Amino acid sequence: MRPDEPEFDFGTPARESSSATAVAEMPDPVSVRHSKPVLVTGASGLVGTHTCEELLRAGWKVRALVRNQTKAAMRLGHMAVEFRTGDVRDKESLEKATEGCGAVVHLAAIAIEKAGQKYEDVNTGATKNLLAAARAAGVDRFVHMSQNGSDSRSGSPFIRSKGLAQEAVAASGSADRGFRRREGRAHLS
């Protein structure tokens, strides 16, 4: 790509039609997509912090859904990130956080259950609620970080919870395109 050539997202391929004529969707220039923030859940965690850095470096506006403002300020305070305090298990928090966003990067999860935090609620239920909130808000892209070996039939409660969440994302029909590598850096496509 030439430096003066705009980058385009060609969206979802046109569905096959019974008619001989098909109309291609018009691509959205990156500048249009970059005008809406990307919501990052789990933003103050290890992967979340690096994801926020990369998104900002690529020119995206970043909105971080955080539970703990102090932890978030320590990890993300040096970045131009919009903070939203909330809990991924709370539907109202998710509705407010997704409002006006163009994409969601869902990283929040628990690997060990603690008092008040169960795999089904945090890993599975929150993912389903976030998918619903994103759909209601008109979010264009949904990226979910799953787990190696995720399987809804697993005997491991953690692996099962991540497998169920992964299946919910797959069944949602969301435009889950993930991260691509370009020039040595990950970017949301």
Summarize the structure.
The chain is α/β, with parallel strands linked by helices. The protein is built from six helices and nine strands, in the order ββαβαβαβαβαβαββ.
Describe the protein's architecture and organization.
This protein is α/β, with parallel strands linked by helices and 189 residues long. The protein has one domain: 3-Layer(aba) Sandwich (Rossmann fold), CATH 3.40.50. The strands form 3 sheets. The chain has a 5-stranded parallel β-sheet with strand order 5-4-3-6-7, with helices on both faces. The protein is globular, with a radius of gyration of 17 Å.
Name the descriptors:
189 residues, alpha/beta, Rossmann fold, 5-stranded parallel beta sheet, two-stranded antiparallel sheet, 9 strands, 35% helix, 18% strand, disordered N terminus, disordered C terminus
Write the layout of secondary structure elements.
Layout: E1 8-9, E2 28-29, H1 30-33, E3 38-41, H2 46-57, E4 62-66, H3 69-76, E5 81-85, H4 91-98, E6 103-106, H5 119-137, E7 141-144, H6 157-172, E8 179-182, E9 185-188
Parallel strand pairs: 3-4, 3-6, 4-5, 6-7
Antiparallel strand pairs: 1-2, 8-9
Helix pairs in contact: 4-5, 5-6
